Amino acid sequence: MSTWQQAPAGYPPYPDQDPNKQYYGQPAPPPGYPPQAPYNPAYPPVQPQPPPAYAGFVAPPGVPPYGPGPTPPQTNMYGGTGGYAEDPLQGDPYSFSDQSIRRGFIRKVYSILMAQLVVTTSIIAIFTYHEPTKTYVRQNKAVFWSSFGVMFACLICMACCTSVRRKAPMNFIFLGIFTLAESFMLGCAASSFRSEEVVMAAGFTAVVCFALTIFALQTKWDFTVLGGALFAGVIILLIFGIVVAFIPGKAATIAYASCGALLFSVYLIYDTQMMMGGKHKYSISPEEYIFAALNLYLDIINIFIYILSIIGASRD
Q1: Distance (Å) of CA 257 to CA 159, 237, 301
Q2: How far from 102 is each of 13, 15, 304, CA to CA, in Å?
Q3: For the purposes of burial, counting CB atoms within 10 Å of the CB of 300, is it exposed (0-12), middle (13-18) or buried (19 or more)?
Q4: Whole-angstrom Cα distance, residue 168 to residue 154?
Q5: Phi then psi dihedrals of residue 267, to 5 deg
Q6: Is 273 helix (H, G, I), strand (E, B) or coil?
Q7: Residue 158 near residue 174 (C-beta atoms within 8 A)
Q8: Which residues cross the membrane (predicted)?
Q9: CA atoms within 13 A on the CB side of 78
């Protein structure tokens, strides 16, 4: 096939090799070149394609700037080019495909978690070492129960209402109120123990949580498939706690607290792997950073409570 383009309508055809003729965007064919066939309007000319590196290309009048060619990749609403249309809030399997999204999500979760733990530790220290505050909360149980009511209401709202935990600044407001209420509850509980017991429980909790987090990041076992078993364990622990409440005793308290500490230690590994995603079967959405921080915070708090119960019962 000849590489010379046929002239469109309004341009003369190629009847001969006259060098004075005007041709469509190209010089006249060399002498001796065979005459071209008359222009057929049923075959439109091929639109010129700009070179990739030639940014100053200007298309001729009436010709689109770009002809047929590959469509540039479409970026999705999360900055990637995967082309998926699923909402990651509804369990999109590709929501963690980008490593930068994963790292940013983990940094955000642990930053929120550290802020929660700092607030909780400060309030527990005040309730433990400040004698007037310690005496007041021992004599006024309304502080504990009012904190419990606020904490439970915020927890139900964040767990059941997706708009509450996903939309800023509402999610931060609810999380802040929940953290303060939980901290006041823990302060009231810690005021019933000696200060050295509280410090010992906090130290053990820090060591256990750090070791479990490292284990969750390094192990090849997938704990994200244990969601149903862990929920069944919580139900059994709840029934066990009711039985222990009616049958008081040091041995029963230590056994109950040990089971609770073990269960929530596994929960900490489970929630950490859910947050990490990657090789694990299930993962949490990047938009659920408040919910992920809330889960880790509750795991650490429960481990602290049960370890404190074990220390208090063993030293009582």
Answers
A1: 25, 10, 13
A2: 62, 66, 28
A3: buried
A4: 15
A5: -65, -35
A6: helix
A7: yes
A8: 109-130, 142-160, 172-193, 199-217, 224-247, 253-270, 290-313
A9: 23
Q: Per-residue pLDDT for 207 more than 90?
A: yes
Mean of the pLDDT values across residues 215-226? 85
Q: Confidence band (pLDDT; 50, 70, 90) for 301? A: very high
Question: What is the tally of helices (H) and strands (E) in the chain?
Answer: 9, 0
Report the alpha-carbon distance of residue 213 to residue 267 in Å, rounded: 11
pLDDT tops 50 at residue 105: yes
Both structure tokens of 195:
């200060």
Give dist(CA 111, CA 216) in Å, integer: 19
Rounded to whole angstroms, the Cα distance separating 291 from 164 reads 10
- pTM score of the predicted model: 0.67
SS (H, E, C) the chain: CCCCCCCCCCCCCCCCCCCCCCCCCCCCCCCCCCCCCCCCCCCCCCCCCCCCCCCCCCCCCCCCCCCCCCCCCCCCCCCCCCCCCCCHHHCCCCCCCCHHHHHHHHHHHHHHHHHHHHHHHHHHHHHHHCHHHHHHHHHCCHHHHHHHHHHHHHHHHHHHCHHHHHCCCHHHHHHHHHHHHHHHHHHHHHCCCCHHHHHHHHHHHHHHHHHHHHHHHHCCCCHHHHHHHHHHHHHHHHHHHHHHHHCCCHHHHHHHHHHHHHHHHHHHHHHHHHHHCCCCCCCCCCCCHHHHHHHHHHHHHHHHHHHHHHHHHHHC
Look at the block and give the residue holding tokens 């220390």: 311
**Token pair for residue 238?**
């709840």
Query: Tokens 């980008």 label which residue?
Result: 98
